[in-house]
Specification:
four-stranded antiparallel sheet; elongated; disordered N terminus
Length: about 160
């Protein structure tokens, strides 16, 4: 009888430890496709900010904070970028009345340094599902300029 109780107790403990181990594993959530945003960061006066690193940025996909999976700096003069602010204010892509650009590029288009930020996007529940994205910088008085979101893809 004692041997039978010991065997039953050992079997119960073995099953409990297996269930506990399964419950301890993190739930796997399928990752969506990578989403890439090109970001320009300017000071209040319109000068480009060139010394930011991955940890300076935060990505919000709607209300969900997304980890940054890829980051690189696109140097000044590589590719082209043209940015204008609403209301005709001068910006990295606009011109001031004196013909000089506020970014100090001497009026040459496409001279701004940029940051490329990649994160895993959401999986769409249906077709044409738009996700609003907010990309922030943890330094005060800086403007982050990028597109407003992306269309999630379904599996």
């Amino acid at each position: 009888m004692t041997q039978r109780i010991s065997f039953l107790l050992a079997g119960t403990l073995a099953c409990a430890s297996t269930v506990g181990a399964q419950g301890a594993r993190p739930m796997e959530v399928p990752a969506g496709p990578s989403v890439r945003f090109v970001v320009v960061v300017l000071t209040e006066s319109g000068r480009p900010v060139t010394n930011l690193e991955r940890q300076d940025f935060t990505v919000w996909d709607g209300t969900v904070k997304r980890p940054i999976t890829g980051f690189r700096v696109i140097p000044e003069g590589v590719g082209a970028v043209e940015i204008s602010l609403p209301g005709g204010n001068a910006s990295a892509g606009g011109r001031r009345g004196d013909g000089e650009r506020p970014d100090g590029s001497g009026g040459r288009p496409g001279r701004l340094p940029r940051y490329e930020i990649t994160f895993e996007g959401a999986i769409a529940a249906g077709p044409e599902e738009f996700h609003t994205v907010g990309i922030g910088v943890d330094r005060p008085y800086l403007r982050v300029m990028t597109r407003s979101g992306y269309y999630a893809k379904s599996r």
